[in-house]
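To the wet lab folks,

You asked to see what we're planning to order before we commit. Fair enough. Below is the target structure as tokens, and below that is the sequence we designed to fit it. If anything looks off to you, flag it before the synthesis order goes out.
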């Protein structure tokens, strides 16, 4: 079904996440004439993308009507400063949708009238290949139609999950928001380890690139990750030798638990 909103969409900040969302919306058929980008430092690539689609993009775009959705996709510290500027743009049916890490519904609403509909969401960068996951929470002012609009926008780039308990957004940010970085670090380390073990950089890279189907297998299989791992591991074989290093004394588990706890703590700090 073609993606449609009840009015214009104002995208504030078209960087990595804002840009990924925008590409997904256009792929789902959102009319580019209804999209407006507010970004004073748009990258050359995003500027060219917007121009190619005839999307108005500047530091203060003029909208033909109050926006149906204002999507805040700037860094969390910028979001804080920007909210007072957003207030005059909010119309009667506008929903403010923020993806800024650690910015709570309460902090987002602080500079807006009490009646404004606000949604806080945490997407992730696999959105750029249409395979993201976004976890969202709505404030009490969000109507069923506004929720549908936010859901449609976020579903354009992957799965969407709505929660009622905002405290969940901190561990969500630590696991699914930041999570792709841990996987990419693993890929970086594996590539380097291959070079250290005698592969040429080209071969190490080639092997790393071929590993992404493991992610597809995990996504499509009915088996859990532990079973899929065991399926790779022949007793006394090569994988078992490697896993002994990673899993002995629960090394990998402890390291990842510490990493995720640090990210969740940072998310809570950003909220205060
Ligand atoms: N990158 C990621 O993996 C994820 C990021 N997020 C959140 O998304 C938000 C954006 O992150 P990224 O896209 O990674 O950052 P980014 O740095 O790629 O994009 C931010 C954009 O905001 C623009 N900008 C800066 N000041 C502005 C202003 N005053 N008005 C309008 N636009 C302005 C910049 O020019 C840039 O294009 C952050 O709040 C982050 O917490 C959420 C989930 C995942
Ligand atoms: O690192 C960050 O703060 C953001 C939130 C999740 C992914 N990137």
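Sequence we intend to order:
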């Amino acid at each position: 079904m073609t993606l449609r909103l009840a009015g214009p969409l104002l995208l504030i900040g078209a960087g990595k996440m804002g840009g990924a969302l925008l590409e997904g919306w256009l792929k789902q058929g959102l009319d580019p004439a209804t999209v407006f980008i507010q970004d004073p430092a748009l990258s050359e690539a995003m500027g060219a993308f917007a121009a190619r689609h005839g999307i108005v993009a500047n530091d203060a775009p003029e909208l033909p009507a109050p926006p149906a959705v204002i999507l805040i996709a700037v860094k969390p510290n910028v979001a804080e400063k920007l909210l007072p500027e957003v207030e005059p743009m909010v119309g009667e049916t506008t929903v403010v949708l923020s993806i800024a890490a650690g910015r709570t519904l309460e902090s987002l609403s602080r500079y807006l009238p009490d009646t404004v509909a606000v949604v806080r969401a945490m997407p992730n960068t696999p959105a750029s290949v249409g395979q993201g996951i976004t976890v969202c929470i709505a404030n009490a002012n969000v109507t069923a139609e506004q929720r549908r609009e936010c859901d449609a926008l976020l579903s354009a780039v992957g799965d969407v999950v709505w929660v009622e308990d905002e405290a969940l957004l901190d561990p969500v940010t630590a696991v699914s928001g930041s999570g792709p970085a841990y996987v990419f670090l693993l890929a970086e380390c594996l590539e380097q380890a291959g070079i250290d073990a005698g592969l040429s950089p080209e071969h190490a890279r080639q092997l790393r690139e071929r590993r992404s189907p493991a992610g597809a297998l995990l996504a499509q299989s009915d088996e859990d990750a532990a079973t899929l791992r065991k399926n790779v591991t022949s007793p006394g074989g090569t994988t078992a030798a490697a896993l002994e290093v990673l899993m002995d004394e629960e090394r990998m588990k402890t390291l990842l638990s510490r990493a995720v706890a640090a990210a969740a703590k940072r998310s809570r700090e950003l909220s205060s």
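Structural context that might help your review: Residues 251-271 form the longest helix (21 residues). The longest strand covers residues 132-138.

Thanks,
Computational group
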